[in-house]
Every structure is written in structure tokens, then in C-alpha cells.
């Protein structure tokens, strides 16, 4: 007789483990299956986000930023630090320690919430008598049964055709986060989020970084004003970004990697680098899930087909996070996980796709929520724009970090905030106020009338709201 659960979650990333905790909170007998292994072969729940994504990348971004400050910015504050040295092995070990703290934290949370954790690969076996049979293949093999299944199997990096990841020379996010030394010359294919974040880490540590991007426009998803400012700042920092390229060949050998490509003018070029990061997007992961055993429908790109409520084509089978449509973001996966658990409980779980914040953890950081100026123009929406530069913000001056601005877009008639776009210090934290404002359908005037602490970077948000009505006080 196999163990029976009300809810079985396959995948223990942010989508899966959060769904499992919420399901358990709602009184369901819940299991979570995750196959990620740590270096010792033990469980390492948390998925891409914890192991090779959000958390380790931010740990290395922080370490490399400290180094950058010590070597370039301390002097401005009257601090001289001679012989500043970096120890890449220690930085990477610290990052691994941060990852482990998070893995252990998730195991603790699952236990605390009485979620049964299975370490191994979960795959569908059959649907029988209103239950789904799921095989768990780990150190041992067993079959468990579930009334409801939540699939949260995440995504994998997309490889360039003909240039498989070897994690030695041709690196995915995984290899890019555990280089043993700073490469002299680093190539990056794709100027998306990973390319910019990982490119920034290794540039700050001394690598010469060249980023090759297929699209003619830089950061097309961001507001054009922000993208323009970002390109200017990143280029000044030393990132070489070439747009509109077409990669034709990648060769990896003992001496490194050679990339043959055509530039925007169609001229043949060759780039020789020590290491190459390929960050051209990710693909939904259903490897080993055996969806055919139960007839679970996938789309042409391999993602699980779901409706707006994360329901699949099978009754009581749900899917959340990177394995379904929508932005591949940890907080989106978490929100979907919570909403699905609540829907299973008969509640009205809800995810507002219009208020999902986007953040790029470069320096300056970039963050936005809602619609961009170019989207509003394309949609024919009449809007007002207000912008405030950090250059005019006292706290930013005190920090010595005055790059960028806050920009607020509001409906021309109703003043409702439609989009907020920030490039500058702590943009990742500042965006929370904007998310709340849009969620509560606030007007620009609402933010303008709220008392913001002085001196704080958030005063720039208030000033941008005042700028919507052309009445900034400090600019
Ligand atoms: P995942 O986190 O991929 O988790 C899926 C889990 O399921 C994995 O543990 C996997 O081993 C397991 N699994 C898969 N198949 C099976 C199976 N058959 N049986 C058992 N287990 C299985 N997002 C942000 O919001 N902010 C960031 O700063 C950010 N930074 C990132 C940096 C990098 C370098 C990368 C690569 C991604 C980053 N992301 C970030 C994206 C974020 O990591 C993903 O959106 C998020 O992890 C998706 O969560 P998920 O639960 O859907 O899938
Ligand atoms: P991405 O979608 O952000 O960027 C990929 C880039 O590669 C695009 O600009 C695309 O035009 C370009 N590209 C595609 N094919 C190419 C080719 N053949 N040659 C040259 N350029 C090409 O994907 P990325 O950076 O790989 O990240 C994957 C996912 O991880 C993203 O969806 C993102 O949401 C998530 N992520 C989120 C982070 C955050 O929230 N801070 C940080 C890192 C990743």
C-alpha cells in the first residue's frame, strides 16, 4: 500500500516548496519531492533560485561590489586601503555557505510545517481511482499517491545550437557562479538579466567583459529611458556591449573559446575569450516527469499548458513557476504556488500579473513595475510622466551614488499610476512602494502626499510623483 497524500508537490524550488508549505498550513497532508543534490549528494531544496540562481548570484554581486568599492570608491570617502586583495576561492566558498544556509532553512521550514520531504526524482506513473501515482526515484524507489499534484519542476538554461555547456569553457549560470579564478577575458552571449548580472560580477573583479546581444535594442523589456541610461552607465563602467549580432559558430579548445559572428552591419567578426557565459534564456523543465503516463499537455516549447489559475488539462493537476507561461521569476513562482494551494482549499487564490516587479541587480540597480512608456504609447493610453534624478537626492549624495532616476507614469485623466521605473541605488527595495501603490490603484498624488523619511532614497519616489504634476520641490 503506497503512502497517500492530499497534495504532492513535484519540485522544491520557490514555486514548489512555498506551495507545499501553504498547502500544509491549510490542513492538507502534503509531500514535496525534490531531486537537487548538494556536493555530498544530500538534499538541497530551493531549486535554481537557491542553488544556482537568485541567492548565489546576489552573494557574488555583493562580494564583487565590496571589492569594487574598496578599489575604486573608498578614496572618495577619505579611506585609503592599500594592497586590497581578492580571494576568489573564498568568495565562492562564502557564496556556497549562503546557499547551504538557505537549503537548510527550507528543510527546516518543511519539517516545521509537517510537509513530508522526499529526496529524488518524481515522475507520473498512472492515474487510478481518482488518485495520481508518483514514483520517487532517490536512494531508494517508492511510489506515493496524491489526490492533487502541483508540478513545479522549473527550468534549465538554453544552450546555443552546436555549443553545449561543458561548464569549463562554455558556462551556463551554474558554471558562471563557480569560476575558480577571474578570467582575463570573458565573453557573454545575451545581454539579458543573467548576462548583465554575471558580467558585472566578473568585470568588477577585473575581467574584460564583452557581451554579444542578438537584438538591436538594449533591454527591450525595460522602459526606453531606463534602458538608455543603463547602456550609458554600463558602457562607462567598462562592459563592452555589442547589439544586433548573429552568432554563427562557437569553438571551445584548450586555449579558451572562439565565437564567430556577424556584427550589426553584417561584417564577419571573431571574439576570442578565456571563458564564455551563454545566457540566452531558459527552457521549461519536464525532464524525467513522464507527463505522457497521465496525458499531461505540454506546449510546443515544452512548457506545461495551464490556464490563468495554473490548472493543467488534467483534473487536480496544477503547475506553477518557470515550467509554465509567464515571467521566469522566483516571486512569480511563489505567488502562483500560494494561489494554487488556496484554490485547492476552495479559496480564491489570486496572482496579479500587472504588479509583478522586475529587478536587475546590477549597479546601479534597475527595477520596474507596471507598463513602460513605449507600451503606453503603443496602447494609445494618454499619460503624464514625472521623473526625479538621484543627483538631487540628499541621501544619494551622502551615499556617493547619484546615478539614475525614478520615473512615474500616470493616467492623464485619472492620475492612476500605470508604471514606475527606477534605475539607481537600492532600486530593488524602492520598487516595493510602487508595487503597493499600483496594487492599491493609487494615484500619483497619493504618493506625493505621503510623508517619506528624510533623508532617504524613497524621497525620490515622492518627488517623481510630484513631478507628474510638475511641482517637484527639490529639483
Ligand atoms: P526551480 O527553482 O527551477 O525549481 C525546480 C526544482 O524542481 C529544482 O530543485 C529541480 O531539481 C526540481 N525538479 C525538477 N524536476 C524534478 C522531478 N521530476 N522530480 C523532483 N524534482 C524535480 N528570479 C528572481 O525573481 N530574482 C532573481 O534575482 C533571480 N536571479 C536569478 C539568477 C540566475 C543566475 C538564474 C538562473 C535565475 C534567477 N532567477 C531570479 C529566476 C529564478 O531562479 C526562477 O524563476 C525560479 O527559481 C523558478 O522557481 P521554480 O520553483 O519554478 O523552479
Ligand atoms: P533573458 O531572457 O533575460 O535574456 C536573454 C538575452 O539573450 C535576450 O536579450 C535575448 O535577446 C538574447 N539572445 C537570445 N538568443 C541569442 C543569441 N542566439 N545570440 C545572442 N543573444 C541572444 O534570459 P537570461 O539572462 O538567460 O535569464 C533567464 C531567466 O532568468 C530570465 O527569464 C530572468 O527572468 C531570470 N533571471 C532573473 C533575474 C532577476 O530577476 N534579477 C536574474 C537572472 C535571471
Could you explain the architecture of this structure?
The protein has 475 residues and is an alpha/beta fold. The protein has 3 domains: 3-157 and 283-351, FAD/NAD(P)-binding domain, CATH 3.50.50; 170-280, FAD/NAD(P)-binding domain, CATH 3.50.50; 355-468, FAD/NAD-linked reductase, C-terminal dimerisation domain (Enolase-like, domain 1, 2-Layer Sandwich). The protein has helices at residues 14-25, 47-52, 54-73, 88-112, 173-176, 193-204, 224-237, 330-344, 373-378, 394-399, 427-439, 444-449, 459-468, and strands at 4-10, 30-34, 116-128, 131-138, 141-151, 155-157, 170-171, 185-189, 208-212, 240-242, 246-253, 256-262, 268-273, 275-278, 282-284, 317-319, 358-360, 365-370, 383-389, 405-411, 417-424. The strands form 5 sheets. Strands 1-2-3-4-5 form a 5-stranded mixed beta barrel. The protein has a 5-stranded parallel beta sheet with strand order 7-14-8-9-10. The mean pLDDT is 97. The protein binds flavin-adenine dinucleotide and 1,4-dihydronicotinamide adenine dinucleotide. 1,4-dihydronicotinamide adenine dinucleotide is lined by residues 160, 189-195, 197, 212-215, 247, 279-282, 327-329, 359-361.
Amino acid at each position: 500500500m503506497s503512502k497517500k497524500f492530499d497534495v504532492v508537490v513535484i519540485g522544491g524550488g520557490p514555486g514548489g516548496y512555498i506551495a507545499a508549505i501553504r498547502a500544509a498550513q491549510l490542513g492538507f497532508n502534503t509531500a514535496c519531492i525534490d531531486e537537487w543534490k548538494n556536493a555530498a549528494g544530500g538534499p538541497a531544496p530551493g531549486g535554481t533560485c537557491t542553488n544556482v540562481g537568485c541567492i548565489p548570484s546576489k552573494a557574488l554581486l555583493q562580494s564583487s561590489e565590496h571589492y569594487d568599492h574598496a578599489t575604486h570608491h573608498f578614496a572618495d570617502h577619505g579611506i585609503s586601503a592599500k594592497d586590497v586583495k581578492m580571494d576568489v576561492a573564498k568568495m565562492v566558498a562564502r557564496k556556497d555557505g549562503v546557499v547551504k544556509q538557505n537549503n537548510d532553512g527550507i528543510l527546516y521550514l518543511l519539517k516545521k510545517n509537517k510537509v513530508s520531504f522526499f529526496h529524488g526524482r518524481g515522475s507520473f506513473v498512472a492515474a487510478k481511482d481518482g488518485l495520481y501515482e508518483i514514483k520517487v526515484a532517490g536512494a531508494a524507489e517508492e511510489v506515493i499517491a496524491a489526490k492533487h499534484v502541483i508540478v513545479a519542476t522549473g527550468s534549465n538554461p538554453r544552450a546555443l545550437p552546436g555549443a553545449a555547456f561543458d561548464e569549463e569553457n562554455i558556462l551556463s549560470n551554474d558554471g558562471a557562479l563557480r569560476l575558480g579564478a577571474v578570467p582575463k577575458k570573458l565573453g557573454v552571449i545575451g545581454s539579458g538579466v543573467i548576462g548583465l548580472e554575471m558580467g558585472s560580477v566578473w568585470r568588477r573583479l577585473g575581467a574584460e567583459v564583452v557581451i554579444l546581444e542578438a537584438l538591436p535594442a538594449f533591454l527591450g523589456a525595460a522602459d526606453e529611458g531606463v534602458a538608455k541610461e543603463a547602456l550609458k552607465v554600463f558602457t562607462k563602467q567598462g562592459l563592452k556591449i555589442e547589439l544586433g549580432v548573429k552568432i554563427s559558430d562557437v569553438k571551445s579548445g584548450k586555449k579558451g573559446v572562439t565565437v564567430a559572428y556577424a556584427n550589426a552591419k553584417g561584417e564577419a567578426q571573431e571574439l576570442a575569450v578565456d571563458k564564455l557565459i551563454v545566457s540566452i534564456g531558459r527552457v521549461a523543465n519536464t525532464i524525467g516527469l513522464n507527463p505522457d503516463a497521465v496525458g499531461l499537455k505540454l506546449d510546443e516549447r515544452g512548457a506545461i499548458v495551464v490556464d490563468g489559475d495554473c490548472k493543467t488539462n488534467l483534473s487536480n493537476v496544477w503547475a506553477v513557476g518557470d515550467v509554465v507561461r509567464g515571467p521566469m521569476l522566483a516571486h512569480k513562482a511563489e505567488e502562483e504556488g500560494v494561489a494554487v494551494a488556496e484554490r485547492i482549499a476552495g479559496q480564491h487564490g489570486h496572482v496579479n500579473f500587472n504588479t509583478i516587479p522586475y529587478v536587475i541587480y546590477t549597479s546601479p540597480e534597475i527595477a520596474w513595475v507596471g507598463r513602460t512608456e513605449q507600451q503606453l504609447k503603443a496602447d494609445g493610453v494618454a499619460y503624464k510622466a514625472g521623473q526625479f534624478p538621484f543627483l538631487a537626492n540628499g541621501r544619494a549624495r551622502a551615499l556617493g551614488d547619484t546615478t539614475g532616476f525614478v520615473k512615474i507614469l500616470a493616467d492623464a485623466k485619472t492620475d492612476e499610476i500605470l508604471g514606475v521605473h527606477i534605475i539607481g541605488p537600492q532600486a530593488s527595495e524602492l520598487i516595493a512602494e510602487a508595487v503597493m501603490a499600483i496594487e492599491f490603484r493609487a494615484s500619483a498624488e497619493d504618493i506625493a502626499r505621503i510623508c517619506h523619511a528624510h533623508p532617504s532614497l524613497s524621497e525620490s519616489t515622492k518627488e517623481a510623483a510630484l513631478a507628474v504634476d510638475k511641482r517637484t520641490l527639490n529639483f
